[in-house]
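To whoever picks this up:

The parser on our side crashed when reading a file containing two proteins. I've narrowed it down to the boundary between the first structure block and the second sequence. Both blocks are reproduced below exactly, byte for byte. First block:
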Amino acid sequence: METPDRTGRARRRIAGDALSAPRALKYRSLSNPLLRQPAFSADRIEAIHEAALRTLEELGVRVLDGEARAVFRAGDAEVDEETQMVRLPRALTKALVAKAPSRFMLRGAHPARDVAIGGESCAFVHVGGAPNVADLDRGRRPATFADTSNFIKLVQASDVIPLVQPTPEAQDVPVELRHLAVTEALLTLSDKPLYVYARGRAQTRDGFAMVRMARGLGEAEFAAGVHAYTVINTNSPRQLDVPMARGIIDFARAGQASIITPFTLAGAMAPVTMAGALTLAHAEALFGVALAQLARPGAPVVYGSFTSNVDMKSGSPAFGTPEFVKAAFGAGQLARHVGLSWRGSAGTASNAPDQQGVWETLFSLWGSVLGGANMVIHAAGWLEGGLTASYEKFVMDIEMLETFAEIFQPLGASDDDIGYEALAEVLPGGHFFSAAHTMARYRDAFHAPKIADWRNFGQWSDDGAKTAGERANAAWKEHLRTFTPPEMEAARREALADFVARRAGEGGAPVEN
């Protein structure tokens, strides 16, 4: 249904087009033209970098996985088996980081879904890993596999999110089987580049096999391109556990991408100053990059950061704070300083898709965007510090992301755009509604939001006075009702289902600790 707004222009109301728009195709490969905002002067960035190199050289990182320690030892690192500490001479760290590519291409099911990572690129990614889910109808609850599938469908509908990852975490599927069910859903409900679990060697091996099966790739073809990514979190301060270390090694050896992301909360697991927290995060990120390059020189990696502060009264994480934003600026500087692509984040500590959730997410996004992030993870649907994925907030966040996508588009400034003829046509005190210049362009002159309601108070009230959250609730339901999965060859779909059934029958794969 279409209703006229106060300018007399027809405007579509909510429902199924809330996640997509006629302009949407240009959102698939976003380039961020905005000037990068620094947090520090060049000499202080170099000082932070040198302090991180000193940390790796003199203090080191505890590595809990024996194979990873062996890889470091073979690469001339100093390894103490008794304490499990690994120390990297600064010259070695610099040489290894220099081997990592500054950019690469993540491959989807077909070329139209490929996503560039690095340079000026900016790829928004939705919330990941939340164990709970929430909506206005049923409230907050443990997530189910049906919820995971629903979010994959919502992501598939939005071109402003070009990558897909598992969220929320399906709590009704045993953890040893979850990677099988969820990866099958990722591959059959979406054709975008996808996340593969790094929770143990067997789970990673299963994930890679499923990607090859669904995408029709031989082992050599799979290894020659980047078809999957994962997120590696260090155990700050200065520790790398078994599944994360093995994940770095396995993804590197397979030629797939690791987003190496220390989660450093200033005042808790990192120094209370942002400069100190960033120094620790920088050291840990470089350490993970170094391990990937020792496993396979040139392995695709992304320098990740997720630095914020805590509420010093309660110890709870805080997001979208001034400190979060400035830390994002600094992390972007550090990533550029070492020539790596950068993963930023968005988030909120709010427990509901309310005003706090909006402003904290928006400030977080500005931190990542102005910091120059090539990937912004948790950019849609995140609530409760990442513990909950919200249906309504996902849709509202998509509106914000599409606004950023439009901000990225260049402004036209041709003679026709400048419009001198329109200036000449309209008399002093007149209006431009009916000018020829306007009439030729009005249908798509401006970005049209799907959730924001621009009608006057009377029209809004007559239509039920629905809040943005209520409109978002209607939008995600309509999209799920009309969802059509992407095409996949029947033989590939059957082979995938057979693989999942066989591996489930064998007991799946436990998470390694």
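<<boundary where parser fails>>
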Amino acid sequence: MTQPIWTPSSVRREGSNLWTFADQMGVSLANGSYQDLHRWSVENQFTFWRSVWEFASGIGDLGEISHIGEDGPETRFFPDAKFNLAENYLRRTGDEVAIAYRGENVVERSLTFDELRISVARVQQALQSEGVQQGDRIATLLPNGPEAVVFFLAAASLGAIYSSTSPDFGSAGVLDRFGQIEPKILVATDSYSYAGVRHDVTAKVAQIADQLSSLKRVVMVTYDDQPLKAEFPLSIGLDDWLANTEPREPEFIRLSFDQPIYVLYSSGTTGKPKCIVHKAGGVLLKHWSEHLLHCDLKSGDRLMYFTTTGWMMWNWLVGGLASGVSLILYDGSPFHPQPSRLFDLADELQPRLFGVSAKFIEAAMKEGLRPRDTHDLSSIDTITSTGSPLAPEGFDWVYDAVKPDVHLASFSGGTDICGCFVIGDPTSPVFQGEIQAPALGLDVAVFDDLGSRLSAGAQGELVCCNSFPSMPLEFWDDPDGAKYHDAYFGRFDGVWHHGDFAEWTSQGGMIISGRSDATLNPGGIRIGTAEIYRQVDAIDEVLESIVVGQQWQSDTRVVLFVRLRDGLVLDNDLTQKIRNQVREGASPRHVPAVVAQVPSIPRTRSGKLVELAVRDAIHGKTIKNVEAIDDPQALEYFRDHPKLADS
């Protein structure tokens, strides 16, 4: 029988929010298991979501009616609700720190809860003076600092719709996003710092503003105490823009459950990004369920998640305010000025939850970091990982090199739902390489190609068979909902198809093997890319890799590209070492037919491998939206690679 690598103590289990919530719902975890609570939450889903509101002491009124319509994509939750998301986020008052911010080692600021409320009120007044009303769009191009949070909450307080990208996006990528939603106000930084280099973006902002005809105002925010000159039509500095506002309490317009709250964007690696419109009630309930129940956050805790404003985890992070937690915001390279930077911050700022991407964990492993030997980390109870599947070796590294007594929760969900389908469970053991459990309230399943549920050990498509509040309200500019339906419900009628290749484990957890649309099919056998990455990641010479399928002689062959440590060259011995590792660790059918060296491997700006873009590149196809990629020039390393002509 598989043994857990961590088991919560009885004190921790019984002191968790999840334990208390289950007791209140009449589902005792003392005599049962998480699976019992999950089953109850699905069978009584509308009661469950109302109970989440009550457990969190939601401010406002959900109304008497829980839903309209049968369970499915057309379901509308709480149609009579009246509340304001910002009012719930700004519920906590006082002089404790609400936001602690670090911009690499250049900028350091903080806001108390009272200061945050006043800052939101002042921006709210300035937005009103610009004529901003319910439904108008506020777009920001800002680092992960206090201003992004303040502008989001001020927009939400008025019923305006917020959207953000990070300042490292190119102008074309920003226009591909903001150009679709036509914002009235653009808020932008003058610069940002990454790996110790300050990047001036004023010319880029001016170019973007010139091409957004919907703009009424561009508000410029200085990154540090050395502001750059940014004068162009419609622009004004933040301090000047706020000059006529008063330091008072914010006001809140109470709106419907389905009030659009923000627009997020698909990665856009195969075309112009889809504009995904999320609703206030959906994200509020979903984030409460995840923060309070799955992550066991409590009022007074500190939440740290390494993210940018261009990734949905920023929205998830800011949602912690609604649970009364303080936010630790970091912007810049996680390895500057030294590889231990994030762990240094954890010791300094004392988060209870420390969140990173699987990519960060892999990179920290390759750096040889052992924070357990060099840092205290006593405040951390939970470490979370998302963005891509966390390899089993990543689990081992966390418990060996970071902290042996910690809840390691691997997440998987996405921008589409601004939350998770499978997630952590603080009351149950952690098993190597597994995501612990399906998220409460979501009837998550694994389907075969015919739409039948698969049992443990069988790989198939990750789906969700019931409706849930954080399903997007709509896609922007999709009046008949056809694009929305095709994106999520076109594969299986009435069932959300997420596009991940997954399987249940005998422990009730899940293993995700990568995106199903990037699944390899050599000889007609389906192979998840994560199965190959796990083996290649174990090879010290390889810093990172990407695997794709190449059309070859009426079939598909597996092609593995690797980036090696500086100074190394992929010779026959190392190629054979890689192939042997894959053969012995996975199976002979996983062994790549081609192994090729490249100097750089492209990812999305949130750190996800762009397998589909690389696949298109090796087949000579045009990549439709290179602005979604962190280093688009890296794609040229794959086109006409000499190894691809090998027989």
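After patching the parser it read the second block fine. The mean pLDDT is 94. The first strand starts at residue 67 and ends at 68.
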